[in-house]
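Q: What residues go here?
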């Protein structure tokens, strides 16, 4: 229950970069992908997660320069669970949001395995 409480606290206290990224990802705005924010997974809380595509997006501030070894351990845990982890520096979100979103799209869209049922369309925003 501890991580659920921590995740709730983190959702209330997003950094500026997380706020901007959440605005870009929420409500299936990015190619229809459903992202959640501050998601508990194992003993960790990830910044953003698309469970359907097994995709994690982490935003790193300056403190992560000193935490790279810990981040590597976290990333290995997630990849062992079948997730792809994408890490971006906070400044990338502000200076190149379009490039960040393109990289997420390139890792987060699984082609549909067969023809769509009659009347359904694929969103390519």
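A:
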């Amino acid at each position: 229950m501890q991580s659920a409480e921590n995740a709730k606290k983190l959702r209330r206290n997003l950094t500026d970069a997380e706020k901007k990224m959440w605005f870009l990802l929420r409500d299936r705005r990015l190619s229809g992908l459903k992202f959640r924010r501050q998601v508990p997974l194992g003993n960790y809380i990830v910044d953003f997660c698309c469970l359907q595509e097994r995709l994690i997006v982490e935003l790193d501030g300056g403190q992560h320069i000193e935490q790279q070894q810990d981040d590597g351990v976290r990333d290995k845990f997630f990849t062992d669970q079948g997730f792809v982890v994408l890490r971006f520096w906070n400044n990338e979100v502000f200076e190149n949001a379009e490039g960040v979103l393109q990289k997420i799209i390139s890792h987060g869209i699984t082609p549909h395995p067969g023809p769509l049922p009659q009347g359904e369309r694929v969103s390519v925003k």
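A: Context that may help when evaluating the design: Strands lie at 36-41, 44-50, 55-60, 84-89. The chain has five helices and four strands.
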